[in-house]
Amino acid sequence: MLPRWCDKYSIHNKDIDEQHKKLFELAANAEMISDKPIHKGQVKFLLADFFNYMKEHFADEEKYMAKIGYPDLPNHQKIHKSIIQSMIDLIQNIKSTNDLKEKLNIIASKWLLEHILQEDMKIEKWHQEHLKKQSSIEIEEPLQNTYNYICSCKNKIHKVSYEIHKKIQTSNVHYKCKICQEYIKLK
Q1: What is the pTM of this model?
Q2: C-alpha distances in angstroms, 41 versus 44, 94, 100, 104?
Q3: According to its UniProt record, which protein family does this protein belong to (predicted)?
Q4: 80 vs 17, 23, 100, 147, CA distance in Å?
Q5: DSSP 7
Q6: What phi, psi does 85 have (nearest 5°)?
Q7: Can you tell me the distance from the alpha carbon of 17 to that of 8, in angstroms, rounded to the nearest whole number?
Q8: Residue 137 scores a pLDDT above 60
Q9: What are phi and psi of 176, to 5 degrees?
Q10: Residue pLDDT, tens place only, 173-183
Q11: Beta 146-150 vs 185-186: how paired, if at all?
């Protein structure tokens, strides 16, 4: 029996989580028809729906990983390509309706859910650790050669060293105010 969606599978991105929920539903539908008599056309329709949604999801997920600066993005993209190629190979070698149902179940359980439960959870783990590192760096004290940054706090100026300013400007690194928890911006 396939697992059902729950919050422990969340990567704390509303759009990606909604897509994961939909993929869990599609996987449940695939499992449900695996031992029932069903017309080959219906299975093909479900498979095509699954395939198209996975491609859309993978593209969105890769954009999200790029946005947060996920360091293992190239490897994750290779995994996505491998899943899609394996899916194409399976679809091309279908012999019967039962074979089609079995392959759909393999796609749903092995590739998709294992991918979400293992690989996508690595994204969330890295992102949470990265956020902790960002918020733990001290930037409040005045320094020589500093840059002025602001946040949502009224009349609050954050004095940021050249090194941290350079990181903010040249990479996908952000720092939060310890008081309002908003990202600081160059004044």
Answers
A1: 0.65
A2: 5, 13, 10, 13
A3: Belongs to the hemerythrin family.
A4: 17, 14, 21, 41
A5: G
A6: -65, -40
A7: 11
A8: no
A9: -105, 150
A10: 788 888 888 88
A11: antiparallel
